[in-house]
TrEMBL record:
Pfam families on file: Glyco_transf_90
Span list, region Disordered: 642-703
Composition skew (Acidic residues), residue ranges: 689-703
Domain Glycosyl transferase CAP10 span(s) in chain numbering: 350-635
Lineage: Eukaryota, Fungi, Dikarya, Basidiomycota, Agaricomycotina
Name of this chain's protein: Unplaced genomic scaffold K443scaffold_76, whole genome shotgun sequence
Taxonomic superkingdom: Eukaryota
Species the sequence originates in: Laccaria amethystina LaAM-08-1
């Protein structure tokens, strides 16, 4: 480079100083890679999950002339910066000239994720405002009279409500149950059975009562009481009592309304995960038959599906289209995404990575063979790949955090780290399983290991008037130590002896926290265990902001709004740092949105107190059993509630069609609902291991 510069120029001290300054600048702020060896902890996970490489994007240089000619670096919207250096000013050329930038829009994908546009504002501003509008619209649209509720029912489901709907409505009104129209989960669960002959259904149901580890609740025509009519539970008295607890809880929930529920028999699985994987072809056959008023022939079922989990998916879905590497972690995401529709984000058919990073699926590797018939069994937490009927259970339900001193007000919670304590449940741990890829192992590894890695984080912008950029590269150790308090509690469980010892070497198992200690944290994350997290009720009833990662829809999923009542987190945790930084700021607290965090935390508590009471559970189960009793009845024609308002009519009698077809559509001229609309249209306003009891540990006491 000196060929073109006069030699005497080089000898000038001022030139030498300038050149050295430039060199020092680039050396000081260039990203450092490969200077730190991997920790043994990280190497353990790398053997299964692999390693990822980071890169640093470019920054642009902008020259501006005022009194002097000044050149400075401005981070381009799609650039990443040097480690540990969040840009203090996020601007483009227009901003330097005094005008606001022209912001671009983010992409809302059909799979429930918002895809970041670096030239748009920080997406969380938009996600919150959008969610608030959706929630307000849903609340305003709720039916206020029985007539309105019946009309809305017919609009959504194209049939008259079930017999006893008026009694259900009276209970809803008397107990101030909110959102009386939002029961699409019941429709989704039961609609396939409308395409089956009720005589066949009753035979299947009776046979399934003999299924191992189940209990059956019901009532007959001679009594008003709901009782446990059958069970096939283990002989051990303690285990039997534990597994049968759900039956007693159901009977207690329905005690005040059981006289209004027609006779029925319902088989329940007592375990905390589902066991009926779905055959997509079979379910579609049943749905199509239901829509056209026909019955499927259960004696000519589809062929056995040997494709495992993806047998539950549409052959045109991503799960079929994108090859799945069943023995390794999925590659890191190339684009930043955030959840806007939590149910869609839980769908492995749209997000096949879920099949290799959650214990529910990893426990069965590529997946089981689905049954060749649809079985009407109730479970506590189905996934979108199962056809278990969802029940609203009061397991570990709490009315409030008591004493209230254990849950200080937001301003009095002095620890602003993200907190989690729990056991290493989620799947069986041994040398033959991919436990390092399960949800809880990944969470703790993400938080406590790989301190020498760099991670790309979206900086928290002051407002939504500036482009957020593609994120900046930061040293993970700087963030993890000051922003996270995440660890396993007590000692390893759900593991073979050798693997238990290995877990002790890989992870730090800390002392469990009591509720008083846990109450000091502003931010808490909730993740799945063996099944759904039963601690969520207690967590969201607190004054803390809850981050929730799950693959299990719940009975209230249509009755809660992410970004209004809690912060949704993807199962791979790729958005967790970004969301946390947005609310609490970087390690120094820069651009923290504490007020927005407080608002969501308090909204979550208010929602829990108003929408998740015992009365709300009763209303759900009351309506569920009204619908279930109807679809299982051999006299479906007598099981409709005709409210007698103009435009409604009793089911016409036509002996040429199956009984359920007579009331399929209140308007006989109305066309069948397309499958896609049936599935998604209703929800949218803008839808034995370590010890005998280990499989039924609901993990409430993980603190």
């Amino acid at each position: 480079m000196f060929t073109f510069i006069p030699r005497r120029t080089i000898r000038r001290p001022v030139v030498v100083v300038a050149v050295l300054s430039v060199l020092v600048y680039f050396v000081a702020f260039s990203p450092e890679f490969g200077l730190f060896p991997q920790s043994p902890l990280r190497s353990t996970f790398s053997s299964i999950a692999g390693t990822t490489k980071s890169h640093v994007g470019r920054a642009t240089t902008v020259t501006r002339t005022q009194f002097l000619r000044i050149t400075r670096t401005v981070y381009a919207p799609d650039a990443t910066g040097a480690p540990d250096r969040l840009p203090r000013i996020l601007e483009d050329d227009d901003e330097i000239d005094g005008s606001l930038p022209k912001l671009e829009k983010h992409t809302y994908r059909k799979d429930g994720l918002l895809e970041l546009n670096p030239r748009g504002p920080h997406p969380i501003f938009e996600l919150i405002s959008r969610a608030e509008a959706n929630w307000e619209a849903k609340m305003n649209k709720a039916s206020k009279t029985l007539e309105e509720a019946c009309r809305e029912y017919e609009r959504r489901y194209r049939r008259l409500p079930p017999l006893g709907f008026d009694k259900w409505w009276a209970y809803v009104q008397e107990n101030q149950v909110q959102l009386p129209d939002e029961y699409d989960q019941i429709y989704d669960d039961l609609e396939p059975y409308w395409g089956m002959n009720p005589t066949d259904l009753q035979l299947i149901q009776r046979d399934w009562e003999a299924h191992a580890d189940s209990y059956t609740v019901g009532k007959d025509a001679q009594t008003d009481s709901i009782v446990m009519v059958n069970y096939t539970l283990p002989g051990n008295v303690g285990v039997k009592h534990e597994l049968a607890e759900g039956a007693f809880q159901i009977m207690e929930l329905l005690e005040d309304v059981e006289e209004h529920i027609p006779p029925f028999r319902a088989v329940f699985s007592p375990h905390d995960n589902p066991n009926l994987p779905t055959d997509f072809e079979l379910r579609e056959m049943a749905l199509d038959a239901a829509a056209s008023g026909r019955f499927i022939n259960i004696n000519t079922p589809p062929e056995y599906k040997l494709h495992g989990w993806i047998s539950a998916c549409d052959p045109l879905s991503a799960a079929w289209r994108d090859p799945i590497k069943w023995d390794s972690a999925p590659p890191p995401r190339t684009k930043k995404t955030f959840i806007y529709d939590h149910r869609e984000a839980m769908d492995p058919c749209q997000h096949p990575d879920l099949l290799v990073n959650h214990g529910q699926f990893l426990s069965h590797h590529t997946g089981p063979v689905p049954h060749r018939v649809l079985i009407p069994q109730f479970s506590y937490c189905p996934t979108l790949l199962h056809h278990d009927i969802m029940a609203a259970m009061p397991i570990n339900w709490v009315e409030d955090i008591v004493p209230r001193s254990f849950d200080p007000e937001w301003e009095e919670k002095y620890d602003d780290r993200l907190q989690w304590r729990g056991t290493n449940t989620g799947m069986w741990h041994d040398e033959d399983t991919l436990w390092p890829l399960s949800q809880r192992a990944r969470l703790v590894e993400w938080a406590t290991n790989a301190y020498h890695e760099n991670v790309t984080v979206l900086p928290a912008t002051k407002d939504n008037k500036h482009a957020v950029g593609g994120g900046v590269l930061v040293r993970k150790a700087k963030y993890s130590s000051s922003m996270l308090d995440i660890a396993f509690a007590n000692a390893p469980l759900s593991c073979a002896p050798k693997t238990c010892e290995k877990l002790k070497g890989v992870f730090e198992f800390r002392k469990a926290q009591d509720y008083k200690t846990a109450g000091k944290y502003k931010y808490v994350i909730d993740v799945d265990g063996n099944g759904w997290s039963s601690r969520f009720k207690r967590l969201i009833t607190s004054n803390s902001l809850i981050f929730k990662s799950t693959i299990y829809p719940e009975w209230f999923t249509d009755r809660i709004e992410p970004w209004v009542h809690y912060v949704p987190v993807q199962n791979d945790l790729s958005d967790l740092f970004d969301s946390l930084v947005f609310f609490r700021g970087d390690p120094t607290g820069t651009n923290a949105h504490d007020d927005m965090a407080r608002k969501i935390a308090y909204a979550g508590r208010a929602w829990s107190k108003k929408f998740w009471r015992k009365e709300d559970l009763t209303a759900y189960m009351f309506r569920l059993f009204l619908e279930y009793a109807r679809v299982m009845s051999t006299d479906r024609l007598s099981m409709f509630y005709n409210h007698g308002t103009p435009g409604s009519r009793p089911p016409p009698v036509d002996d040429t069609k199956p009984p359920q077809a007579h009331a399929q559509n209140p308007d006989p001229e109305a066309p069948p609902i397309p499958v896609a609309e049936r599935r998604k249209g209703n929800r949218k306003y803008v839808p034995e291991v370590v010890e005998e009891l280990s499989d039924n540990e609901y993990e409430e006491d993980d603190f």
